Amino acid sequence: MTPRLDAIGLVVADMAASLAFYRRLGLDIPAAADNQPHVEAAMPGGLRVLWDTEEVVRSFDPDWQPPRSSGRTGLCFVCASPAEVDATYAALIGAGHQGHLEPWDAVWGQRYATLLDPDGCEVSLFAAAT
Question: How much is the pTM?
Answer without folding.
Answer: 0.88
